[in-house]
Amino acid sequence: MAFDIEMIKKVYSTMAERVDKAREIVGKPLTLSEKILYSHLWDGTPTKAFQRGKDYVDFAPDRIALQDATAQMALLQFMQAGKAKVAVPTTTHCDHLIQAKQGAVPDLKRANETSNEVFDFLASVSNKYGLGFWKPGAGIIHQVVLENYAFPGGMMIGTDSHTVNAGGLGMVAIGVGGADAVDVMAGMAWELKFPKLIGVKLTGSLNGWTSAKDVILKVAGILTVKGGTGAIVEYFGPGAKNLSCTGKGTICNMGAEIGATTSTFGYDDSMERYLRATDRNDIADEANKIREYLTGDDEVYASPEQYFDQVIEIDLDTLRPHLNGPFTPDLATEVGDLGEKARKNDWPLKVDWGLIGSCTNSSYEDLTRAASIAKQAVDKNIKAKSDFGINPGSEQIRFTAERDGVLKIFEDLNATIFTNACGPCIGQWDRSDRKGDEKNTIVHSFNRNFSKRADGNPNTHAFVGSPEMVAAIAISGRLDFDPMNDTLINEDGQEIKLDEPKGLELPPLGFDVKESGYVEPVKDGSKVDVSVNPNSERLQLLEPFTPIGNKITGAKLLIKAFGKCTTDHISMAGPWLRFRGHLDNISNNMLIGAVNAFGKKTNFVKNQLTGEFGGVPDVARDYKAKGIYSIVVGDHNYGEGSSREHAAMEPRHLGVAAVLVKSFARIHETNLKKQGMLGLTFANESDYDLIQEDDTINFLDLNEFAPGKPLKLEFVHADGSKNVIVANHTYNQSQIDWYNEGSALNLIKKENAS
């Protein structure tokens, strides 16, 4: 039986009425995305049509998912909200704090020893406030959610950008910062600008070496890392129905890499099969009763150009396997063309590691398709030329794959089976074969491949592909290997051509697990004690932020970030994950990965008070200690990547009043607003070039801060000359109220106390 089945029945009981009303109000057929959005309005039954990309709308999500790295700060904030229990079903998943090194058993043991303080805190907070708790080793949050909590037509939010994975089961699932999650956990509405809609029509069927992963790798190449910003991507067409449910999840998962608000598919037979295979017949039965409401209207899919803001069409019959990268997930290359491209760009052709898993590609189907390639190598006496690492998506998948002999195939190829956790995908990888900044190449089935992402080495060239393609490339040890056309030489000197991969959508014997790792919270948590050691280096109770106010003068430029500046650059993961529950300690990584436009170095900025150069956090702390605000200037798509709100909380904590950029990634802009800061964009992008290293900034009209009204900033240069720059913003009145109160959380506490 499914979790929270009564909640799901309640959602379904009102969906038809609300969708019918929305269709009447909008005056035309509806996409699936619109059906879910209009059926989850905070005020209930729709009363008006919303403008895409313009109107801010209050929604009522059905559930929330938290992962351990972001859950710490989210729950520390929730503890201040004055609530006895979460208002909607919420779960905590421990998957980020487990480092991949030796293998599943020793790695999990080490994580439980080194992070026990954090795990104990999360377990006790979850127990006290009514959250379901998934222990370390239980699995990767998004795979566990897909197996247990996702349901067609639902809306959920999660404190991880890849929450969008649940779109594979027909949800509108959106990654948010912890402060957004706190709002919903506290029983308040969740605000989102009504998204634009991008339709992707899929025709044909996948064949040969091509997989669902190649669909999103192709889309990433078309839309780029910011092409989906502010939009929901909805997949449809006969090709969509030919994909497995977990394949759909893979496509939706990597929608985060094109900046999309989320991605989704209409309910179909593959979703029903998956629900029934994961012991959720009750959801499938209920979904079947309103099946027509769980997909887009026929007219929409027949004439998509009339209903979507942009339409892309992909023929799966002719789609070719891709490897995207390095350093960005939208640099798309068909496998057969990669060798020439690599030689032209001097990318290392020797492949040192092949990594399979992460939340993107760790399903049973993924493992069996990759294993079908690995088995050929074992059977045909081909020695793998690269190291192998495997991260199963959940304990249920690991147990089932072990039972069915799938994992043994990888072990016969000398692969290391890591814990059911994120591992190398988020930099939690103690990579023994590399030291320093040696130039090298790895291939993986993950979603992100930013510089330093997997192993901290800026010269690791990471390429993203399907699990089966990663297996083939890793076995060959060559980036330019094309398994569709090239051959390998086995240990007997024979020339071998790999057969096409074959996988199983679902396990023939069904899923099984002995210990899932789930802990149900007690009904009454009032007697549960949550304590935080004041001397802890891992956890720190939060103090409310003081409002910045409407008069900012004499602020100093902290850093002018050059080029790509993701949340990995603003607040690195890897070894810094240990401080995710301690705001002051983790603030020591603030912007240390960002390239300073002046001098093109990282973590090296000028302290205008001393004339000396130092690390970004050190200079920021000096300004703050002297009562001086600072500002950060950035380029396009600033804050791309993870949902981590630490990238907003750290600057706030260290006295940054405003971030002024050419454009923002959606989640990061919202996170800045939630923390009571100013997130601004250049009205004229070329004004970025006017910013000088010694600039002092005065806000000229912040006392008139209002929706739709740009702000004027005066940049005073070292020689006394000045430039007045116009900065746009997207704040509505509620968000301005957050700013005036010092943060959204301050406003929640104020409202709860009244």
Automatic annotation (TrEMBL):
InterPro entries linked to this entry: Acnase/IPM_dHydase_lsu_aba_1/3, Acoase/IPM_deHydtase_lsu_aba, Aconitase/3IPM_dehydase_swvl, Aconitase/IPM_isomerase, Aconitase_4Fe-4S_BS, Aconitase_4Fe-4S_dom, Aconitase_dom2, Aconitase_mito-like
Name of this protein: Aconitate hydratase A
Superkingdom classification of source: Bacteria
One of the GO biological process terms: tricarboxylic acid cycle
Reaction catalyzed: citrate = D-threo-isocitrate
Aconitase/3-isopropylmalate dehydratase large subunit alpha/beta/alpha domain boundaries: 34-477
E.C. no: 4.2.1.3
Enzyme superclass (EC): lyase
Biological pathway: Carbohydrate metabolism; tricarboxylic acid cycle; isocitrate from oxaloacetate: step 2/2
GO cellular component, as recorded: cytosol
Aconitase A/isopropylmalate dehydratase small subunit swivel domain sequence ranges: 557-685
Homology family: Belongs to the aconitase/IPM isomerase family.
SUPFAM superfamilies: Aconitase iron-sulfur domain (SSF53732), LeuD/IlvD-like (SSF52016)
Cofactor: [4Fe-4S] cluster
GO molecular function annotation: 4 iron, 4 sulfur cluster binding; aconitate hydratase activity; metal ion binding
Assigned keywords, A-Z: Iron, Iron-sulfur, Lyase, Metal-binding, Transit peptide, Tricarboxylic acid cycle
UniProt keyword Iron-sulfur present: yes
